[in-house]
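Hi Prof. W.,

I finally got the Protein CPL1-like domain-containing protein prediction working! I wasn't sure whether to trim anything, so I left the full sequence exactly as given:
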Amino acid sequence: MLPTIVVFALATLIPVVVDAQAYVGCFNPDVIEDVPGDRVLIDLNESKCVCSVLPPSGDELHPAYFSEGFPYPYWSVTLTRPFGDYQWSGCWVLPPGIGQWANVASFAQCFEECVTSDQSLAYTQYVGETVQCICTNSYPPIDLPLQCAQETPFLYYRNVQPSSFVKRQLRSRLARDDQMVLGHCPKGLTACNTAQDGLHYECIDIDSEIESCGACLYGEYGVENIKDQENKGVDCTTLPGVLLGGVTCNAGRCVASLCDDAHRLELGTCLAK
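And this is what came out:
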């Protein structure tokens, strides 16, 4: 059996091709850089992929909803070639009556124990620096994904043909891609760059946000295609003739209600006299 390797990828995503992999969390880069045995495989500007035989400490876990959903400057950590080829299936509520958590040395040990006990599912969680494990064949009771954080069950499965639950939650996960960007924007909100450098974002309702009405003022976070960024949002407060407090954003359109003396109000717009 080939040794298990932990792969760290920086927030600017880099494809890492491996036979099998299992996401184990989003972590502070300072902790990752201190892990012994790291070697940089890729270093393009600020984008990196690092390999190590040791995982980072669990008490440095950063909450995130999806493995592709980790904010700059945190790193996504993936266990490659996991024993039993377990695949990550999100973070979920535990099913009732499946037993007690047992302390293990790592996620990798949990997978080995679940294969040995002939269980198709592995639940793991971080409790401070400690990793805990439950092996079972029971799926979560409800399709309600949780934010992957401390003391939150990470679910992994090794079915050759995924169960109806796995198929169902994978479909809903794809649907949520349009509702949640990088694991932090709920349905109805858009991840918008906070500045032109595109390094940070905030979740905005572009249908009602007065300073970013209709679209993201500095473009949508993570969208590199220039054509996709042509539709920029409008800061309604900067429109000519609009008085302070005299404009709103309604359904992605600036609607004025008060104009200065040099402008007249016409159908929600301040027009020069």
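Residues 1-5, 10-18, 37-46, 173-183 have pLDDT under 50 and may be disordered. Does that look reasonable to you?

Thanks,
D.
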